[in-house]
Design brief:
The structure is a single chain. With 129 residues, the protein is mainly alpha-helical. It is built from 5 helices and 2 strands. A two-stranded antiparallel sheet has the order 1-2. α3 runs antiparallel to α4. It is globular, with a radius of gyration of 18 Å. The chain starts with 6 loop residues before the first strand and ends in a 10-residue tail after the last helix.
Length: 129
């Protein structure tokens, strides 16, 4: 796949070309069935994204307290925590704009669970195509 553009056709949408940087970063092509499910459950995608941003900020804060003797690391972790919280605020604003209420979502129903679900399909998950 490297070196050539990949196009997708979605109902009611123009073909999408992935940026070469994203294409190179991905270890394998994203299955169209996964993308279709993600598009059908954008509310859960955004809630999961917001949760991931908060977790990243929380991890940075935890490490900030754990490695107090490392000044350079302290500075970088502090900046990282702020950046991740800004990302959370951006996702939360997008959710508000779309009328999506922030609510608890079971880990079994999040896109993060999709990786293992898609590799070994489970008939109990909504995410399995």
């Amino acid at each position: 796949m490297a070196g050539r553009a990949r196009w997708r056709r979605h109902p009611n949408r123009e073909p999408m070309q992935l940026l070469p940087e994203i294409e190179a970063f991905l270890l394998c092509p994203t299955p169209d069935a996964w993308i279709d499910q993600a598009l059908q459950h954008q509310d859960i995608m955004l809630i999961d994204h917001a949760n991931c941003e908060k977790k990243a900020a929380s991890t940075a804060m935890t490490l900030l307290f754990r490695y107090i003797e490392k000044a350079d690391l302290q500075y970088n972790l502090s900046r990282l925590a702020r950046e991740e919280l800004r990302h959370f605020e951006q996702v939360a604003a997008l959710m508000a704009k779309r009328g999506i209420a922030y609510r608890p979502v079971s880990a079994a129903f999040t896109p993060s669970a999709c990786t293992s679900t898609y590799a070994a399909p489970s008939r109990t998950s909504w995410w399995t195509p």
